């Protein structure tokens, strides 16, 4: 009768095989696979699972899509969102300060600031120059040496 016990060497029927896989696989791939920190933008839009591989995830690779992430590497989506909030709060405060200068400076100075805003793409650059005291409110003087203001 002991000869019968050696029969598992034969290919196992499909049902048995699945039981064996479930016994051996979970410890490795189900619970120890590194968590995906953040899904790429296309996968997030499509609401599909993303392997989080950079620069191009498996799904984008397979589909030939352009893979893109809107959070930094090694950053979870939540951390990325927190960073974004911090940046937005900072910029919001800065813009409020610029607005405050426009309100509280003399009218001539405010017009000078407005002119710089119209000449400069980044309002925070204008604000920094006002703040560090090198802002030139005398437009006629500045127009002669625009680099210096
Ligand atoms: Zn993806
Ligand atoms: Zn992708």
Automatic annotation (TrEMBL):
Pfam families: Zn_clus. InterPro entries: Notoamide_regulator, Zn2-C6_fun-type_DNA-bd_sf, Zn2Cys6_DnaBD. Gene3D superfamilies: Zn(2)-C6 fungal-type DNA-binding domain (4.10.240.10). One of its GO terms (molecular function) is zinc ion binding. Residues 39-69 form the Zn(2)-C6 fungal-type domain. CDD domains: GAL4. It comes from the Eukaryota. Keywords: Nucleus. Residues 1-28 are annotated as: Disordered. PANTHER family: ZN(II)2CYS6 TRANSCRIPTION FACTOR (EUROFUNG), ZN(II)2CYS6 TRANSCRIPTION FACTOR (EUROFUNG)-RELATED. This is Zn(2)-C6 fungal-type domain-containing protein.
């Amino acid at each position: 009768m002991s000869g019968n016990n050696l029969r598992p060497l034969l290919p196992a029927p499909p049902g048995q095989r699945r039981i064996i896989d479930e016994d051996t696989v979970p410890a490795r791939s189900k619970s120890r696979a590194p968590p995906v920190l953040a899904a790429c933008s296309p996968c997030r839009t499509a609401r599909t699972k993303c392997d989080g591989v950079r620069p191009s995830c498996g799904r984008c690779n397979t589909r030939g899509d352009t893979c893109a992430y809107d959070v930094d590497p090694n950053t979870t989506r939540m951390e990325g969102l927190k960073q974004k909030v911090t940046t937005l709060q900072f910029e919001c405060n800065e813009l409020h300060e610029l607005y405050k200068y426009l309100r509280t400076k003399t009218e001539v100075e405010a017009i000078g600031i407005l002119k710089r805003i119209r000449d400069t793409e980044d309002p925070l650059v204008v604000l920094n120059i006002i703040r560090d005291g090198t802002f030139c409110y005398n437009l006629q003087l500045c127009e002669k040496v625009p680099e210096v203001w």
